[in-house]
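Hey, sorry to bother you again with one of my protein questions. I've been puzzling over a protein and I'd love to understand its fold better. Take your time with it, there's no hurry, and the full record follows here:
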Amino acid sequence: MKVEEPHSSSTPFSHAEWAHSNLENYRQAEDARQKSEEVRNQAIRLVEDRDRRTIRSQDDATNRLNERARDVTNWKRDLQRELDQLKKEDNLLGEANRQLEHAIAQIQRPQDVVNLCRSAREYRVGIDQVKDAVEKSLDTEMSEINRVRTGMKQHRDLALAQMKTNEIIMMALNQDLVNKNQAIEIDTNCFEMDTTSHEIAIHPGINMADITKSSPQSWVKFSDKNIEDSTNARFKSNELKGNIEGLLSTACTELMTAWSNSNRTFKERIQETEESQHQLHNHLEMTQQEIADLDDHINLLKESLKGKEPPLKLAETRLKLRTHRPNIEACHDGPHGKLVEEVDEIKDTVSQLNHKLSEAETARAHLIKSRQTLRQDIRVKENSLRIDRGKCMGARLRFPFNHRCSRKCTYRWCQSIANYIMQKTADGLHLADTDLRQYDGGHCA
C-alpha cells in the first residue's frame, strides 16, 4: 500500500480510514499466510504422497524385477533340463548310428564270402555246371544282404539328418539359455540397485525409447516352442534309436538264418555229390570187372574159333581127297554126306562164333567208353567237391564277423552274432558239418 507524504497542516484520511486500512492489511496478510500455509500443506502432502508412490512404485518395480528374474530362472532351468535331455538322447542316437556304421562295414564280410563261393563255383565243369539249390540259396543270401544293407543305410541317413536337426535345436536352446543368463544377470543387477547405488544416473528420454522386442506372450511362446521342438526331437531320436536297435537285432537273425540255409543246402549238395561219386565208383568197379570178364570171354571165343580150324581143315581135306575118286567111285555115299554136313556145321559154328566175337568186341568198346565217361564224371565230382566242400564250406564254417572282438566288445552287431552262434551251438544246430572242420584253413577274422 502506497504511503502518503505527510502534510504539514491537515491530513486527507480520517481515523476510520486509517483503522480500516490497517484492518485490510491485516486481512490481506492473514489471507496470504493462509494461502501460503495451504500451499505448504499441499506441497507437503504432495511430497509425502509422491514419496510414498515413488517408494511403492520402486518396490513394485523391484518386486517385479525379482519375479521376472525368478520366471526367467525357471525357464532357464526348464531349458537347461531340456537341453541336457536332448544332448543325452542325441548321444544315444550317435552311439546307435556308430553301431549301425559298424554293422554296415561288417556286412561286407558275408557278402565277400558269398562272392567267393559264387566265383569258386564258376570253375565247376561238365554236367555239374547246374543251377542247383546252392546257387538259389546263395542268390537268396545275397538278396538278403543287399536288402539289409539298404535298410541300414536308410536308417543311417535318417539318423544323420535327425542328429543335424538335434544340433540346430541345441544351438537354439543354447542361445536361449545365453539370452536368459544375460537377462537374469541384468534383472538381478537391477533388483539389487537402490537409490544409494553408484551406478545410477539420469538418462533423459529413456522412458520414451522403444527398447522392447517382444511381448510377454511372444516371449513365453518363443521358449515354449524351443522346448516343444526339443521334445519332438527327443521323441524322434528315441524312436529312431529303437528302430536302429531293432534293425540290428532282426538283421543279425535274418542274415544268420540265410547263412545257415546256404550252409544246409551246401551240406545237402555235398552229400548228394558224394553219393553220386560213390555210385560212380561202384559202377566203375563193376564196369572194370565186366571188361575183365568180357576180355576173358573174347579170349574164350578166339580160342574156340582157333580150335575149329583143325576140324574144318580135316573135313575139307577129306572132301578134297575124295574128289579124286575115279568115275563111278565118286559116289554120294554116307561118308561124303557126313563130311559135307561136318564142314557146313563147322562153318556155321565159326560164323556164329565170329558174330558173338563181334558182339563182344562191340560191347567191350561200349564198356571202354562207359569207363571213360565214368572216370571223367568222377573227376568232375571230385572237382565239385573240392570247390563246395573245400573252398566254399572252408570259408563258411563260421559266420564272418570280427572274431578279435571279445565278449566285452561294445558293438551290438558282434555281440548279437556271437550270442546267436553260442545259442545255436548249445542247441546242437551247428552252422556247418563237423566233418568239414579239416578244411578250416583260415576263416574270415
